[in-house]
Backbone:
DNA sequence: TCAAAGCATCTTGACCGGCGAGATTGTCGG
DNA sequence: CCGACAATCTCGCCGGTCAAGATGCTTTGA
């Protein structure tokens, strides 16, 4: 079970480290994705629905409720898909629509109780596992990890935009 | 754009660090996923196809060609989906089927030239971006990152199995 | 001031394709 | 010959894209 670590020189110890870390990251990503998939299936939704629910939750907790349009940007979904998605989540009682009183074109998405409970149920055990791991690292070490991950995150984000720009087929942009 | 970092106490500086790292990881995962999606779309396949191609490539480079069954395990796909998937990839000239001479039930999947080229084209720029980031870290720092990611990876893997075991609906197992 | 054009946001409907479930075919081990 | 196993086939569902439409804000120009 290798990855693009395979395409490096493994004689050099630093190259070896690089490929190990690369593998770690990929395995983490894939498995994290599978966790989401399994959890979603367990509760009668699909992976997209769960991502959406999390986005709605995040936005709401940040005090800045999300709209279907912005949700579509974040999930890289077309507007039609978003409507169907929101329909599903609303029908299942996870979120509800609220029209903006100022600009009545807009629809704000809010977590209903079931949705909030589900998000907590998803994150709570994940969070405690994470805490367990982090407890085995010093503050300085965690700072290094943070610096590294922040840079990797920015880098892959740039790369994503570059790949998307390669052909103007889906000029979606995440607002940040 | 927060995440389950939201569900932590942010007064404690260590808790703050924890939630920052958690956010980094999630953003990385999501964006990495989007990179795959965009790249795949650019080449007329979907995300699953690309994952499969990578798995076939990895197995082949490891000297242990993969079978449709094991591929389905890795991608968490049903056997029917795998057949369709392999059909698509074979029709597109990315891989080819080879029956095992010993056990003629088994089919080995091998990368065709187009598939190998595509995989390289996917990983090469990603690898150089990664190298750029890593160049800004010392050996010791990278060692810390590796230790951290290895533990996180193992942890999320355990969690994945726990969630999957919650209901025996899709008792898929990655062979490791 | 106000009507009309223009833009933004969401929704609808038609269509397509991936995925899962179950039955089927071919193959190995006893 | 008989179970166990691997892959394939067939079918239906569901989520996705796309294009068009409905609604409401905003700007413009007499």
Residues:
């Amino acid at each position: 079970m290798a990855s693009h670590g395979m395409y490096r020189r493994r004689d050099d110890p630093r190259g070896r480290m690089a490929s190990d870390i690369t593998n770690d990251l990929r395995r983490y990503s894939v498995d994290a994705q599978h966790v989401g998939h399994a959890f979603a299936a367990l509760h009668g939704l699909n992976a997209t629905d769960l991502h959406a629910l999390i986005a709605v939750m995040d936005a709401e907790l940040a005090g800045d409720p999300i709209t279907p349009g912005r949700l579509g940007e974040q999930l890289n979904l077309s507007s039609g898909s978003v409507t169907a998605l929101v329909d599903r989540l609303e029908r299942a009682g996870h979120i509800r629509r609220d029209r903006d009183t100022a600009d009545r074109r807009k629809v704000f998405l809010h977590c209903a109780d079931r949705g909030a409970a589900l998000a907590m149920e998803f994150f709570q055990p994940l969070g405690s596992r994470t805490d367990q791991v982090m407890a085995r690292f010093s503050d300085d070490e965690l700072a290094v990890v943070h610096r590294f991950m922040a840079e990797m995150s920015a880098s892959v984000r740039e790369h994503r935009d570059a790949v998307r720009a390669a052909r103007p087929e889906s000029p979606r942009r995440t607002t940040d």
